[in-house]
Amino acid sequence: MILKNSVLNKMKNVIWLILLSSLLLVASENFKKVKVYPSGKQEYKTLAEVGIDHYWKDKDGGIVVYVSEKEFSGFEEKGLKTEILVDDWIRHYRESQAKISKAELKEQLANTSLQYGVNGFDFGSMGGFYTLDEVYEKLDEMYSEYPNLITRKESIGISYESRDIYFVKISDNPTMNESEPEVMYTALHHSREPQSMMQMIYFMFYLLENYGTNAEVTYLVDNREMYFIPVVNPDGYEENRRINSNGGGMHRKNMRVNTNGTIGVDLNRNYGPMDYWDSPNGGSSLDPQSNTYRGTEPFSEPETAAIREFLITHEIRACLNYHSFGNLLIYPYGALGKETPDSIIFREFGADMTQFNNYVYGTDDQTVGYTTRG
């Protein structure tokens, strides 16, 4: 875990080059870059009610978010103090954001090859990110080159729109069930967060290409069974490719057609059991229009049901679910709204895992400022 965070921190400049591309938005809906100044914990909860759960804190105490016109209207209705930094992000991006040249991209890839021994990682065709098909091609490429360290991709279930949700396993004997701790890594619960998937593909290549030459990597691969699910939400991710094939689609949820005609459930709010999914502590919505809509019941979505079944059939000791872009390491238990005896262990893990990247670690309330459910 420590190794991974160290590597990801060193890759920050590489990923940042393609992160800007993800903010090029579909012309049919304008987004704004806004700074909000919450006056207390209640206003952080108000942000969650509006459907905002991704932001970063500025030095002056304000938090910076990218929001749709509708979400911004929700800020005004709730009486939140705001400052518009960019009124029309599409126009701003097109007029003022410098394009990354092919030479600069090539230089970045050369540097990561030289410094970290990673050659399989490159940039995809969707604003620098891999498309869904390209992700799965990368998994095939890994298996073709390292069949002794990684399994073929295998489906854990079918999405709402009938797409496979694939996983692979990396270990020294990947096709065998050994008595080693099992770890699960997931990405793209939210389909507008491709950076979460890109860092995972990078880490996987780092493991495969440095096995046998790097002592820490070799230890991890020899003594762990690591399962990777790079795209939990294939439908939403493919929808963003449809919205803008050059990157920048902002659809977040899956593609469930709700009873009122709205689209999508926030998969990250759809987990159970019932007392978590329906916790009174807030952090998700029962409004199908909300970006944090948690669905009709726990595991109502085929994507989260597939994750549940995968967990039932494996003895996962630790699970890391990657998102972007808050520079936070959030540990359980969100729905409880308080720490538990397990928090002592989580704090130790948090301190170890953030010693290189200096992320803020803690429960959801201690990091993003509100409790979550689902």
Summarize the structure.
The chain is α/β, with parallel strands linked by helices. It has 14 helices and eleven strands. β5 and β6 (164-170) form a beta hairpin.
Task: Using brief descriptors, characterize the structure shown.
five-stranded mixed sheet; 374 residues; 11 strands; globular; alpha/beta; single chain; four-stranded antiparallel sheet; 14 helices
Radius of gyration: 20 Å
Shape: globular
Indicate the proportion of strand residues.
5-15%
Mean pLDDT: 87
Distance between the termini: 25 Å
Number of strands: 11
SS-based class: alpha/beta
Give, in order, the helices and strands.
HHEHEEHEHHHEEEHHEHHHEEHEH
Largest sheet: 5 strands, mixed
Strand order of the largest sheet: 5-6-8-7-9
Which residues sit in consecutive blocks of at least 5 with pLDDT less than 50?
12-27
Bin the helical content.
25-40%
Number of helices: 14
Any overview of this molecule?
The protein is of the alpha/beta class and 374 residues long. Helix content is 37%, strand content 14%. It contains 14 helices and eleven strands. The strands form three sheets. A five-stranded mixed β-sheet has the order 5-6-8-7-9, with helices on both faces. Strands 2-3-1-4 form a four-stranded antiparallel β-sheet. Strands 10-11 form a two-stranded parallel ribbon. Strand 10, helix 13 (343-353) and strand 11 (360-362) form a beta-alpha-beta unit. The chain is globular and about 60 Å long. The chain starts with a helix and ends in a 7-residue tail after the last helix.
